[in-house]
């Protein structure tokens, strides 16, 4: 019989190691939440530009350029948020 899921945190008599493992599991869940938000952001932006309105005249091209610049700014801000979450948590290789 199996003693539990293979992804569970092993019981270790070393509370420091257990604390570090728990810390990294929480970090993974936090990053996952941020990445899901980023995915939703991308899907929302993907549907915000109708395919039949791709540069039919100069005015529509200017509108698309403004939308693109706003998208890049928002994506950069979200990317920085993801990087800062990852950088501030350390690396799992630092365990032990």
Residues in helix, %: 55-70%
Q: Quick one: biggest sheet?
A: none
Radius of gyration: 21 Å
What's the overall average pLDDT, rounded? 76
* Fraction of residues in β-strands: under 5%
DSSP E strands, number = 0
Low-confidence stretches: none
Give the overall silhouette. Answer: elongated
Helix vs. strand class: mainly alpha
Total of domains: 1
**C-alpha end-to-end distance:** 30 Å
Number of helices: 2
The SSE string, one letter per element, is HH
Describe what this molecule looks like in 3D.
With 96 residues, this protein is mainly alpha-helical. It has one domain (15-87). Helix content is 67%, strand content 0%. It has 2 helices and no strands. Helix 1 runs antiparallel to helix 2 (58-89). The longest helix is centred in the N-terminal third of the chain and has 32 residues, at 15-46.
Question: Keyphrases for this structure?
Answer:
single chain, mainly alpha, 96 residues, elongated
Describe what is shown at a glance.
With 96 residues, this protein is mostly helical.
Element layout with pairings:
Blueprint: H1 15-46, H2 58-89
